From TrEMBL:
<dbReference type="GO" id="GO:0004821">
    <property type="term" value="F:histidine-tRNA ligase activity"/>
</dbReference>
<dbReference type="GO" id="GO:0005737">
    <property type="term" value="C:cytoplasm"/>
</dbReference>
<keyword id="KW-0067">ATP-binding</keyword>
<dbReference type="InterPro" id="IPR041715">
    <property type="entry name" value="HisRS-like_core"/>
</dbReference>
<dbReference type="InterPro" id="IPR004154">
    <property type="entry name" value="Anticodon-bd"/>
</dbReference>
<dbReference type="Pfam" id="PF13393">
    <property type="entry name" value="tRNA-synt_His"/>
</dbReference>
<dbReference type="InterPro" id="IPR006195">
    <property type="entry name" value="aa-tRNA-synth_II"/>
</dbReference>
<feature type="domain" description="Aminoacyl-transfer RNA synthetases class-II family profile">
    <location>
        <begin position="22"/>
        <end position="322"/>
    </location>
</feature>
<feature type="binding site">
    <location>
        <position position="126"/>
    </location>
    <ligand>
        <name>L-histidine</name>
    </ligand>
</feature>
<dbReference type="GO" id="GO:0005524">
    <property type="term" value="F:ATP binding"/>
</dbReference>
<protein>
    <recommendedName>
        <fullName>Histidine--tRNA ligase</fullName>
        <ecNumber>6.1.1.21</ecNumber>
    </recommendedName>
</protein>
<feature type="binding site">
    <location>
        <begin position="81"/>
        <end position="83"/>
    </location>
    <ligand>
        <name>L-histidine</name>
    </ligand>
</feature>
<keyword id="KW-0648">Protein biosynthesis</keyword>
<dbReference type="InterPro" id="IPR033656">
    <property type="entry name" value="HisRS_anticodon"/>
</dbReference>
<dbReference type="InterPro" id="IPR045864">
    <property type="entry name" value="aa-tRNA-synth_II/BPL/LPL"/>
</dbReference>
<dbReference type="InterPro" id="IPR015807">
    <property type="entry name" value="His-tRNA-ligase"/>
</dbReference>
<dbReference type="GO" id="GO:0006427">
    <property type="term" value="P:histidyl-tRNA aminoacylation"/>
</dbReference>
RNA sequence: GUGGGUGUAGCUCAGUUGGCAGAGCGCCAGGUUGUGGUCCUGGAUGUCGUGGGUUCAAGUCCCAUCACUCACCCCA
């Protein structure tokens, strides 16, 4: 076969795809339980939305976007993240004109043109939660709790929560200037020196040891917070404490998107190698205005479904493939195949999952199919049985087999399958 | 964008100083002509990533190229 999946695009097929759905379901349940509603937003948007929303100084915008001209000459971009699109949709449809906050969740693929590696893909699957129109630190803590319960529901026990604040429009500029003063005095490579001028906070997050050593004594935002940011941050932390969600203060934690303000956080998993961030979020109080909307604060997170799958596997939590069906039909001969096809359909209509052997398979092959389907019962039907007006119902676990009149097959199986 | 590693059966991988292309798992069939899962026996499947070079002879050595992969950077 001469085709292969595009570079950097992971695919999930059975049995592993079950874990994919389980991860989504765990977070969807957590979000729904906390009163978040589903929103479906476009996979591509006007390029300008991301440029302004995510930020011109970010790597995501400057070198990682899948941007192209459509046939009408418009520049569109496959979403590199969800928050800008969710905010745009909220503003466009006036969701914020009702009671606030607007609490939304969404999920699907996002796209970034990067060199793939373990846990880093060009098409990545995210699960997002956004609470728009609130400054209440309790909602900051709520979003963290929602993500946390998603991880818990999957059984992950090694997730670390790193928490920081980035200050706000009032206090960040002064801190930024102080940080730049400090960083300009260091011995750094050219790319990093440029970053000092564009986005100095990100230098703090550099993972290279030689950089880390030098920023050891850099001024920290936590020492430069205004009174309201400090109160906000303290409140978030004390609420987390009330909930029993453990966190680590990470005063050097910076997120890569420009819109973050105040609360920022990241979930890490120690077993994943270089790309250990399995989720991250924060407050984006200026985003609405950045894209031409009214002042409208917000807080939310994205978790990486692909990386969570890796974490689930690293902690050996992958579930065994569930039985595909409860009943499997084994027809012998043309007439039996026709009757079985209808019986299987009737079983499904009666709420009993069922499959059957096709292609005129022989008894041995069909029974093998029954075994692999994970079915609890096989229904065997041959000419002999049709003549007798009955089918053989075999309990595949015990091997016991009984003859059941055709008219009673469905009720018998329903009964036996009900615990 | 930068650097390292790896390409052999459907999958995971072995393949010696260059000398007949292999194993396990899976798949198919038979043992059992109406019975799966265990067991036994047998069977099929390869442009050895691709192109070139060296050699009597290349999976093995050399060059190029492509793909995959890990890491930097960045982020979910």
């Amino acid at each position: 076969m001469s085709f292969q999946a595009p570079k950097g695009v992971p695919e999930y097929f059975p049995p592993r795809s079950a874990t994919f759905l389980a991860v989504r379901a765990a977070f969807a349940t957590a979000a729904q339980n906390a009163g978040y509603s589903y929103i479906e937003v476009p996979v591509f948007e006007d390029t300008e939305l991301f440029a302004r929303g995510v930020g011109e100084s970010t790597d995501v915008v400057t070198k990682e976007m899948y941007t192209f001209a459509d046939r009408g000459g418009r520049s569109v971009t496959l979403r590199p993240e969800f928050t800008a699109g969710v905010m745009r949709s909220t503003l466009e449809h006036g969701l914020h004109h009702g009671q606030l906050p607007v609490k939304l969740w969404t999920t699907g693929p996002a796209f970034r043109y990067e060199r793939p590696q373990a846990g880093r893909y060009r098409q990545l699957q995210q699960f997002n939660v956004e609470a728009i129109g609130t400054e209440d630190p309790a909602v900051d803590a709520e979003t963290i709790a929602v993500a946390w319960s998603g991880y818990q529901a999957l059984g992950l026990s090694q997730v670390r929560l790193l928490l920081n604040t980035l200050g706000c429009k009032q206090c960040r500029p002064a801190y930024r200037a102080a940080l730049q003063d400090f960083l300009r005095g260091l011995d750094l490579d050219e790319a990093t020196r440029e970053r000092i001028e564009i986005n100095p906070l990100r230098v703090l997050d550099d993972k290279r040891p030689e950089v880390r050593a030098q920023v050891e004594n850099a001024p920290l935002i936590t020492d430069h917070l205004c009174a309201s940011c400090k109160a906000h941050h303290d409140r978030v932390r004390s609420l987390l404490e009330d909930l029993g969600v453990p966190w680590e203060d990470a005063p050097r934690l910076v997120r890569g998107l420009d819109y973050y303000t105040r609360t920022t956080y990241e979930f890490d998993h120690p077993l994943l190698g270089a790309q250990s961030g399995i989720g991250g979020g924060g407050r984006y109080d200026g985003l609405s205005e950045d894209i031409g909307g009214p002042p409208l604060p917000g807080i939310g997170f994205a978790v990486g479904v692909d990386r969570i799958i890796l974490a689930v596997e690293a902690e050996n939590l992958s579930q065994e493939a569930p039985a595909r069906v409860a009943v499997y039909g084994v027809p012998l001969g043309e007439e039996a195949a026709r009757r079985m096809f209808r019986l299987v359909s009737e079983l499904r209509a009666a709420g009993v999952s069922a499959d059957m052997a096709f292609d005129g398979k022989g008894l041995k092959g069909a029974m093998k199919g029954a075994d692999r389907s994970g079915a609890a019962y096989a229904v065997i039907l041959g000419d002999r049985d049709i003549a007798a007006g009955a089918a053989q119902v075999k309990d595949l676990a015990s091997g016991d087999q009984t003859s059941v009149p055709l008219a009673e097959i469905i009720t018998t199986l329903k009964e036996r399958l009900t615990p």
